[in-house]
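Morning F.,

Quick status update on the modeling queue. The single chain you submitted on Monday has been processed. Sequence for confirmation:
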Amino acid sequence: MRFTKMNGAGNDFIILNNLTERLDHGLFPSIARTLCHRHLSIGADGLMVVESPAQGGDYRMLFYNSDGSEGEMCGNGARCICRYGYENGLAGETQTVESPSGIVTGARIDQRNYRIRLTNPSVIDLNRPVDALGQSRPCSYIELGHPGLPHAVVPYPGLSRLTMDDLRELGKALRWHPAFPKGANVNFYEITAPDQITELSFERGVEDFTYACGTGTASVVLALTLLGKVSGENVTVTVPGGTLRVTIDRDRSNVKAIWLTGPTNIVCEGEVRDEDLHI
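Structure tokens below.
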């Protein structure tokens, strides 16, 4: 079984091309849990599978978190898979990718940088405060796509001086908070300058912080744009794995498009030989 490992701003993925591997879909949760384990196998935040299109796209993307749960979408993963699609002849420099939460369009900027149009929000709640660890905390709640990928957008003053360890218990508490019936990716942010943000993301399915969360970054910028705190035009977001940029096209409160731009990196390609993988 051939694989490619990539990362987008430190958010890393294993890609399998099921157009050639022809594996049964029921195997993918187990494959994800096995291959994504960082000590016992290749290691990654998630598994992405390339499949035949069903809605007229260039191809279809399936996404599985490292715990084997199926995800609705992944923004950094979509940028990586657009590069994979282009370099493996599945699509041109502009492409259409089908995902469980809707159609994602991607564009090649140069060899390593890709821009994608994310699925539009299905839920926007700019004022959903939550009580966690004995304190009421301001929060916005965003779901991108249909079905919606859930995000809690949480301001945290002084975030740029903190580490993931400082916020891990709060991240866990918010990720499972009953205010979020699907659970949520928890995206802590601090505005550090005009149109500049620092962000840390605790992701469901990984159940820990990751180096980047593309849909989470987009949700942060979307919420802050609608709240009038950033312009929504090429907003720069610094995450542990690098820098992402987000643009929100809108007509007043009507969101027309969400664009995410950032780097990709092909880490390695090869053959899976993991003897704990039973397929």
